[in-house]
Specification:
Length: 460
């Protein structure tokens, strides 16, 4: 007979058992469930709700169950539905009647909410650690190539020269915002729901603050109904991961483009590429492509939970069992993607020559020439129009800027002098010496700041 079917005369249908079980995935909460149960037991004993001897027996039994799980000896039983009942049933087998006192003063509703919050807190720390590893890899690649200049693009059209390190540091900034979102999520995940009972609180003289300290929570929940019904912290985690995957997908797209023969700016290591089943010459950026594809999967997990929660009345509803599988999938997908990107970035090779050749195409110095005319006294809108005509002429003549004669320049404006030839790729980069700009000085400062930032820790 199930531990929770005392009022029933019939056992659940086999198909119902299969349909309602969650042990096939919530086994991942086993360590959190045991930690929460140990803290709860210690509190019950401290408060005299159970005897000290009963408390010691329960804690000892739970620690032994933890060892069984770690050693792969624990047998999960589908008919017991979830990890909570599996552990409690095993405890009763090990220590007898005292095991039945573990659940005094709590419900599965506040129990699972506690397990999930403990798990989420751990995953937030894990996410930030993996993001930091990728940031470190990007920073090392940027420092190793801090003098390499590449074309910067808008609309995927050649725009202006930028330092390759500056481009990489843009992703460092995106990743830093990701850590901020996870850090912010931690503030709301760090709330103890245990003690809320099923929805209305409990009738025992419990000490919630003691349990919070035991489990490392900074505060206890203020409303018992909200505590058991809240899954905002998972939604926030999923949202932060979805944005994080979007950032990785953008970087993946750059790698796909840059590694193509038409660009050739980078070479992805063979360990992070695959071949073709029919074309021997192919070296496909499949890791980057899969990251783009898996981004949609993480988006879907976020939308699934939002949809599950959107019309649920207070307090707990069984719909909320659907919070876990997609959550676990998001964690696995996001963490694995961060790991493989870190390895891919560490082994990336830069082709500075190909980048330099690309800089000679697309008239990337057009803005600098317009600024040149502005400094000579021409209004910017007129300078923009003048240089636009100059570009059209040069393209028709199939000449880059540095092959034009001074008289050709002056046919568009008398303001052009010999010093127009001082405008080069290097001068273009150096000229953007403003905070956040691509000038060498600014990028060196940004690299230094990024290195200092990596020594920080997640805010609490």
């Amino acid at each position: 007979m199930s531990l929770i079917r005392g009022r029933f005369e019939k056992e659940a249908d086999e198909k119902v058992l299969q349909y309602t079980e969650s042990i096939s995935f919530d086994w991942r909460l086993s360590h959190q469930d045991i930690a929460g149960s140990i803290a709860h037991t210690k509190m019950l004993a401290k408060q005299g709700i159970i005897t000290a001897a009963e408390g010691k027996a329960i804690v000892k039994g739970l620690n032994e169950i933890r060892q069984e799980i770690e050693q792969g000896k624990f047998k999960y039983r589908t008919e017991l539905e979830d990890i909570h009942m599996n552990i409690e049933s095993r405890l009763a087998e090990k220590i007898g009647e005292a095991g039945g006192k573990l659940h005094t003063g709590r419900s599965r509703n506040d129990q699972v909410a506690t397990d999930l919050r403990l798990f989420t807190k751990e995953m937030i720390t894990g996410a930030v650690g993996k993001i930091r590893a990728l940031q470190a890899a990007l920073l090392k690649l940027a420092e190793a190539n801090k003098d390499v200049v590449v074309p910067g693009y808008t609309h995927l059209q050649p725009a202006q020269p930028v330092l390759f390190a500056h481009h990489l540091l843009a992703y460092f900034e995106m990743l830093q915002r990701d850590t901020g979102r996870f850090s912010d999520c931690l503030k709301r995940a760090d709330v103890l729901p245990l003690g809320s009972g099923a929805l209305a609180g409990v009738t025992y003289n419990i000490d919630r603050e003691f349990v919070a300290r035991e489990l490392g929570f900074n505060q206890v929940s203020n409303n018992s109904m909200d505590a058991v019904a809240d899954r905002d912290f998972i939604i926030e985690f999923d949202a932060a991961a979805a944005i994080g995957m979007m950032h990785l997908s953008r970087l993946a797209e750059e790698f796909v483009i840059w590694s193509s023969p038409q660009f050739g700016f980078i070479e992805i290591d063979e360990a992070y590429t695959t071949g073709s089943s029919i074309m021997p010459q192919k070296k496909n950026p499949d890791v980057a492509e899969l990251a783009r594809g898996k981004t949609g999967r993480v988006y879907g997990n976020l939308m699934a939970l939002l949809t599950t929660m959107k019309a649920l009345p207070l307090a707990y509803d069984r719909d909320m069992q659907e919070d876990k599988e997609n959550f676990f999938d998001t964690i696995d997908t996001y963490f694995t993607t961060l790991d493989v990107f870190t390895g891919m970035v560490k082994t990336l090779k830069i082709n500075a020559l190909a980048a330099r050749e690309a800089l000679e195409q697309g008239y990337l110095l057009a803005t600098d020439i317009a600024d040149y005319l502005v400094r000579k006294g021409m209004a910017f809108r007129k300078a923009h129009q003048t240089v636009g005509k100059l570009v059209s002429y040069a393209a028709a003549e199939n000449k880059p800027f540095n092959e034009l004669k001074l008289k050709e320049y002056r046919s568009f404006s008398e303001l052009f002098e010999k010093d127009v030839f001082d405008i080069t790729i290097e001068s273009s980069v150096a000229a953007r010496n403003v905070t956040g700009g691509t000038a060498h000085k600014q990028v060196r400062q940004a690299l230094k700041a990024a290195k200092k930032l990596l020594g920080g820790v997640i805010d609490r």
